TrEMBL record:
Record-linked PANTHER family: TRANSPOSASE (PTHR33055:SF13), TRANSPOSASE FOR INSERTION SEQUENCE ELEMENT IS1111A (PTHR33055)
InterPro entries named among the record's database cross-references: Transpos_IS110, Transposase_20
Organism: Isobaculum melis
Source taxon at top rank: Bacteria
One annotated GO molecular function: DNA binding
Protein name in the entry: Transposase IS116/IS110/IS902 family protein
Occurrences of domain Transposase IS116/IS110/IS902 C-terminal (ranges): 1-31
Pfam families membership: Transposase_20
GO biological-process terms attached to the record: DNA transposition
Length: 69
């Protein structure tokens, strides 16, 4: 959505774009959304939301992120 900081939203979308290309879990999630007929930016928004949850969990648990295969 267009609520909140536009700078933070842009940073999240940029991170989601890179993550959807290099992280296997987020790449599969992005491709699932695209196969459902979602537009590129809509699917990227879903990836950025999922990335927010991952970032919050990392900060809350104070653990390093490990890419799952």
């Amino acid at each position: 959505s267009k609520r909140g900081s536009p700078y933070l939203r842009k940073a999240l979308f940029s991170a989601a774009l890179v993550a959807s290309q290099h992280d296997p879990v987020l790449k599969a999630f992005y491709e699932k959304k695209r196969s459902e007929g979602k537009h590129h930016l809509t699917a990227l928004g879903a990836v950025s939301r999922k990335l927010c949850y991952i970032i919050f969990a990392i900060l809350k648990k104070n653990e390093a992120y490990e890419i799952r295969q």
